[in-house]
Amino acid sequence: MIPTITAFARSPDGGRGLARDMRVRWALEETGQRYEVRLVSFKAMKEPDHLALHPFGQIPTYEEGDLALFETGSIILHIAERHEGLLPRDEKARARAITWMFAALNTVEPPILDRETTALSERRETWGEARLRLTEDRIRVRLSQLSARLGDAEWLDGAFSAGDLLMVSVLMRLGPPIVDEFPNLSAYVARGQARPAYRRAFEAQLEVFRRGGGGG
Amino acid sequence: MIPTITAFARSPDGGRGLARDMRVRWALEETGQRYEVRLVSFKAMKEPDHLALHPFGQIPTYEEGDLALFETGSIILHIAERHEGLLPRDEKARARAITWMFAALNTVEPPILDRETTALSERRETWGEARLRLTEDRIRVRLSQLSARLGDAEWLDGAFSAGDLLMVSVLMRLGPPIVDEFPNLSAYVARGQARPAYRRAFEAQLEVFRRGGGGG
């Protein structure tokens, strides 16, 4: 059964692959799965039909027969558990890869989203600039810890996993200026983006943006 | 093999069960597991021995033979996948329960932590009070969505699961003033706290605080 995911009808990132459907597309491509995409407008995201699928009115969602899931982390774990390519077979290595999924979403991404929220919604407040610097310092603490752990390794724990997929996605969301202060992290992001599955997923989401008339 | 978790030697919450080891203790109690606890000082958390276990220098960690995990969500999922009591057996219900684990940690908790960070670290900034109100409005949006989904149900998706364990824990972290604006959510938190496994876990973490001389 081919699953259906939802994505923004008009992504606010201009097709740069920062919306969370990109993460799910990438996971589907890594595991060689076909999928359908249903585009949702900002208005429709807050209406009852979509809220029945996603109680917090966001994208992506994942529908496969009568199973409906939301939350990117959960969707990717669901895909990774059922198809080869995103989690090692060894039980302990698998638990460690899942740990990195949670670390990406719960420890590294929150200060990055905090900075984004301040930049988007609090920039015009009197505190906007000062608070932006504060959030950037918090991000640097996390990235220096991540950089120390990654060291010279190619991926976070042996082979590429769903943990790397999410960590690379989270670092992409932050963007180069701060990530580039940690050369092993920017090389890590580049390795992720060079994967054929990443490229296919990126092109697919960019095509939505182009067709939507959002491009030049 | 009895696992060992780490907890704060002196929890900053004064034994109120808000530190993240409480979530893991609760999961271990729900599944009837014995466990050992190793207490870690704030200083030791940032030293090489602990950073080898937890690259971001936090608690809890989980050690079971030669397997070492960090991230509360990952530890609880590991426990829940291996022992009865925290995830339904039906594959689809299981995927939905895991979705609620991610929703608790990635969608509901971030604005709650944002408020906490502002209250703790930015209160003396000129923007402290104004920003606190802003974070509280964001929390209310999430809680109203969660409240609408829960409705009159006892738990988020059928039987009590690891998703409820984490959601109740996240709402506990926020505390009554805002949660009580949503009566079905405060009743939901109370149901979680009334569970025998919760009580055992709560007493165990309180005992650490009492022995540590932190109490009166």
UniProtKB/TrEMBL annotation, chains A, B:
Gene3D superfamilies listed in its UniProt record: 1.20.1050.10, Glutaredoxin
Keyword Acyltransferase: no
Domain GST N-terminal: 8-87
Keywords: Transferase
PROSITE patterns listed in its UniProt record: GST_NTER
Entry-linked Pfam families: GST_N (PF02798)
UniProt cross-references to InterPro entries, sorted A to Z: Glutathione-S-Trfase_C_sf, Glutathione_S-Trfase, Glutathione_S-Trfase_N, Thioredoxin-like_sf
Database matches in CDD domains: GST_C_8, GST_N_GTT1_like
GO molecular function: transferase activity
PANTHER family: GLUTATHIONE S-TRANSFERASE GSTA, GLUTATHIONE S-TRANSFERASE-RELATED
UniProt-recorded name of the protein: Glutathione S-transferase
